[in-house]
Known about the structure:
The relative contact order is 0.16. This protein has 14 helices and 14 strands. The strands form 4 sheets. The protein has a 7-stranded mixed β-sheet with strand order 2-10-9-8-5-3-4, sandwiched between helices. The chain has a 3-stranded antiparallel β-sheet with strand order 11-14-13, with helices on one face.
Amino acid sequence: MTVKSFHPPVRTLMGPGPSDVSPRVLGAMARPTLGHLDPVFVGMMDEVKAMLQYAFQTKNELTMAVSAPGSAGMETCFVNLVEPGDKVIVCQNGVFGGRMKENVERCGATAIMVMDDWGKPVDPNKVEAALKANPDAKVVAFVHAETSTGAQSDAQTLVKLAHDYGCLTIVDAVTSLAGTPLKVDEWEIDAIYSGTQKCLSCVPGISPVSFGERAIERIKNRKTPVQSWFMDMNLVMAYWGGAGKRAYHHTAAVNTLYALHESLVMLQEEGLENSWARHARNHQALKAGIEAMGLRFVVDEAYRLPQLNSVTLPEGIDEAAVRSALLNDYSLEIGAGLGALAGKIWRIGLMGFASNEKNVLNCLGALDAVLSGMNAQINSGVAVKAAKQAFAQ
């Protein structure tokens, strides 16, 4: 078999991630590779760190990019802060709270589950009840923006609750970073992780993380070694340290970090608050079109993420067939439901570079055409007009 060079088709990515990547970011990846201890590359690492601090709204010294995707950022937080025998209160209102539970158990700790319905935010009253019932708990872990449903929880309230009961916090911000307000220092979040492939408009494969002083103190005073050598912050700190000095730990994802650097430069140019506002504006237009069509959102508006929209199906429609038609006929990707919502919803992403007026209008037009062609019970021909009116306001 003769294998030739791979040339992927051009898609519009409006699923739950990865999102579309800016040509500027793709171009940055093609720049000459440097050694991971080259002084020029080390200087770029310092710039990445400073720009991540801006994106997270933190002054945390231990803010860095893990050379692996968001799932590794999750694991990095858990293996460093959780020891065998610990109790961890884990909030689950979708798929990714369940992954937190798995991380806790693989650390040899016990997960105390706080369960909420998929599509609902984490209930602070349930969290407080769990804290009262487990006064020896060490950590509260929750997902700020649940990618499987598009629901956003009140991070500030949950962190304050955890601190009131002497717990540290681990927060999943994979889908929220740069897309919706997130303020690590103001909300006093102890450990947080994200991914590059969502609202940062970057390629997959890097996980921004940040650890506050309380978390660093816990890491330094562990009774047992961190179970992962690669993710041990005691070792990695020396590579992402200050003053331009680096001790070899691993070969960083050099060209992927170029991409992250460029995406963070773009975020600075736009302004973080402007990025939040852009995601909100495009969501409002998509919402106008979806509702004009007669479709509904899964998540109540008060808790709905603007960058990840879960939409219910018209009766009698095969959701996979619709996604297939969008991909094959319009080169447009939207996402399927996961877990309890599999086969029941679509997930439409408006993240990062993909969050723009053109994509909103094209997605609504394509969805309208495909559903009308399947004789779905929708209001045909009105979605794009409704969205345009929303943009004009």
